[in-house]
Amino acid sequence: MEKREQLYEGKAKKVFATDDPKYCIVSYKDSATAFNGLKKGEIHDKGMINNRVTNHLMRLLAAAGIPTHYVEELSPRETLVKKVDIIPLEVIVRNIAAGSLSKRLGIPEGTKLKRTVLEYSYKNDDLGDPMVNDYHILAMEYATEEELKTIAGYALRINELLSDYLRDLHIELIDFKLEFGKTAGGEIVLADEISPDTCRFWDSVTHKKLDKDRFRQDLGGVEDAYKEILRRLLGE
Ligand code: TMP
User: What does the alpha-carbon distance between residue 37 and residue 8 come to, in Å, rounded to a whole number?
Assistant: First the structure.
């Protein structure tokens, strides 16, 4: 497939058209942002690591029956994906309190939640991705009732699959963010990325943070944390 014009540039990725309208090429950047773009930086090799980690996890999920947009890794930073209309929701799954949940509800970071928590944010940078519930989603028609049911089911199943897989690598899956898209044929598929940018990964033994919180919170060792995730997942 041939790479054509750039369709979109986001904070962490660029998307290019191909000569086939059913497919796009995603190119991962080293740039990092936090707090809705207020904090900016570069994380050396992040684009390569997030591309490879995302593809590894998407292949694992696809093998377990979750439909995804993944088609083929083209290079260390570039991947061929199915073209989808992104559903304008950030789907957040939480197992352990951290980040905005800890702040909002006053629950100490690291507290195990009695049940998995599912949250949605409306994807809109100008509004700061506000949290919404099922009623907002249906009233504003961000998704239909059937789509939302599918998305929630996939998100919870993905949590089980990833938590089990990562546990064996001594990584605790604290929380993560997913995005879903709709293909031309109307199928809901997992899209975007699953990487240390979009998940909280803690070492199960030392509880050391191995994700973008090192950048958000100026903890140092950002690049080493991303490399450690690549090493544990892909063995290098
Ligand atoms: P939060 O605790 O800041 O709400 O983040 C929850 C999870 O979602 C965490 O794993 C980081 C991820 N996340 C994103 O991928 N993109 C975002 O813009 C935000 C705010 C969080």
Answer: 17
Does ligand 1 lie within 6 Å of residue 199's CB atom?
Answer: yes
**What size, in residues, is the chain?**
236
Give the Å distance between the CA of 199 and the centre of ligand 1: 7
Task: Give the nearest ligand 1 atom to 103 CA.
Answer: 2
Ligand 1 atom, smallest distance to 174 CA: 10
CB 22, CB 83: distance < 8 Å: yes
Q: Is 101 in the pocket of ligand 1 (CB under 6 A)?
A: yes
CB 163 within 8 A of CB 169: no
Over the chain (236 residues), what is each successive 10-residue block's mean pLDDT? 96 98 98 96 98 98 98 98 98 99 98 98 97 98 98 99 98 99 97 98 98 98 98 95
CB atoms within 10 A of CB 233: 19
| CATH architecture entry for 85-222 | 2-Layer Sandwich (3.30)
**Secondary element (H or E) of residue 133:** none
Rounded Cα gap, residues 54 and 212, in angstroms: 15
Right CATH for 3-82 from 3.40.50.300, 3.30.300.130, 3.65.10.10, 3.30.200.20: 3.30.200.20
What is the identity of the amino acid at 140?
Answer: M
| CB within 8 Å of 14: residues ≥ 6 apart | 6, 8, 26, 27, 29
Burial of residue 105 (CB within 10 Å: 0-12, 13-18, 19+) is exposed
Residue 236: its pLDDT value, please?
81
Q: For 88, phi and psi rounded to 5 degrees?
A: -80, 55
